[in-house]
Amino acid sequence: MVFVLLTSSDIFRALLLTLSAVWLLSDLALAKHAGITRHYKFDIKMQSVTKLCQTKSIVTVNGQFPGPRIIAREGDRLLIKVVNHVKYNVTLHWHGIRQLRSGWADGPAYVTQCPIQTGQSYVYNFSITGQRGTLFWHAHISWLRATLYGPIVILPKRHASYPFPQPYKEVPIVFGEWWKADTETIINQAMATGGAPNISDAFTINGLPGPSYNCSAKETFKLKVKAGKTYLLRLINAALNDELFFKIANHTLTVVEADAVYVKPFKTDTVLITPGQTTNVLLRAKSKTPSATFAMSARPYATGPATFDNTTTIGILEYEKSVSASKSNNKKLPLLRAKLPQFNDSNYAMKFNRKIRSLATAKFPAKIPKKVDRRFFFTVGLGILPCSKSQTCQGPNNTRPAAAVNNVSFLQPNIALLQAHFFNKSKGVYTTNFPTNPPFKFNYTGTPPKNIALSSGTKVVALPFNTSVELVLQDTSILGAESHPLHLHGFNFFVLAQGIGNFNPKDDPAKFNLVDPAERNTVGVPSGGWVAIRFLADNPGVWFMHCHLEVHTSWGLKMAWVVNDGKGRKQKLPPPPTDLPKC
């Protein structure tokens, strides 16, 4: 008789495989009625790229910049194998995908997974349930998303139509941000010295800076259109640190979708889009071919006191000429410029955001939680933290700028929160005492208090399954009021109201829109103001919430919600996949 000694890791692996098999069989039964499975292979590799007269090596997917487009239909399952061939640790996030019971595939480093190390791979496995529209994917570790990003296009189910006229053509328009220097070096130096990271050198449209920058006239995105046709532009803001105004000279756009949720169509000449947001617009080309080309311009909406990249990226809208016109006329057409709002036009920002309303129809209902189980009030903003004795920082008394939610600057753990939660090993990793309200009250948007020091820690809010949450996010004026685009992983939320100044819990709830509020995954907290949102915590797992300005994320403006399992099988998080990266 032969005895085999099993280690605890062998037993754990066997248990995991058994559990996974049980879940897989029951999920396969459901899959018969779902869409198809689509496979993608993402090789993370370095690529030499020249922009603004300078060549540098950047991190890419499959050598492409921007990265490849993912196309799927509502109901499809995606299997994306990511292989890391670079020196950096990597994770990818599928921004805006609900990840229902698939939190292991969400992607934020040290939140839902340990990073994919050099030479390692991981298969992101998730289904697209009840979503259709434009989203995007990007790296979710350090500042790698500067070059690791690409569109996600989710088409409606077969034979389902758009709730707006069928466009002649669909075009992704992805805004990015470009540095001549290496972005990892920039953020690492800033964190070491306690200074603000260097601002970018250019913005890009589909990876191209355009004619307003040095050496970039040939690096210009061109959109060719036919007179009288309607085009669906899928706008994505993948920039790191800047909200953007976007406008096409002498043309009107019709907004039909925001963050992959259909909205009541409205016309506008300028779109405001924060990092992390997506907006679908219809562009109706003029009925007759004009004798001009038109600038498609994007530049920052910036509200904080810090310096910013005050440049403009330009693409060109060109009309296809008829054959006779092409033969007779070869002269260069004039380029008509787009006049954008002032860089700090908060009034325009507020008016634009208030126009976004859910369709709220029988086919596309707005399922706003009517009753509220838990109410939270979170301040979001800046402050200072002491530097270590070995550092020489630029702030007073050896301090550095930092950012926080309810005065807690988030400390990244060294193992993933989701693993610690799932295996009941949270001790020493995180605590569940994240404050429901700010630790002390002050005039949030008035004169800042004398003490602007923050605390730091890895704190989360724990919620029972199916808790309905109402959350007020309040900007503060500490180190300057500023608009903060807050992104919640794992959920869409409803934007009930927003206002300037301090939220008034007595009067402001009367302004809440409980009929057709915008349903989003990323919302701009107004500069010197507040926004109120609601969401239903119906997705078990650990869900990151953070500012989508990367500099603020680096400084700690982030936290997490732990949603516990419910009682039913479909209310529980399945075990992790066997190839989940190790820390």
UniProtKB/TrEMBL annotation:
It is found in: Secreted, Extracellular space, Apoplast. Belongs to the multicopper oxidase family. The keyword Transcription regulation does not apply. It catalyses: 4 hydroquinone + O2 = 4 benzosemiquinone + 2 H2O. Its cofactor is Cu cation. InterPro entries: Cu-oxidase-like_N, Cu-oxidase_2nd, Cu-oxidase_C, Cu-oxidase_fam, Cu_oxidase_CS, Cu_oxidase_Cu_BS, Cupredoxin, CuRO_1_LCC. Transmembrane segments: none annotated. CDD domains: CuRO_1_LCC_plant, CuRO_2_LCC_plant, CuRO_3_LCC_plant. The keyword Metal-binding applies. Lignin degradation and detoxification of lignin-derived products. Keywords: Apoplast, Copper, Glycoprotein, Lignin degradation, Metal-binding, Oxidoreductase, Repeat, Secreted. Binds 4 Cu cations per monomer. It comes from the Eukaryota. This is Laccase.
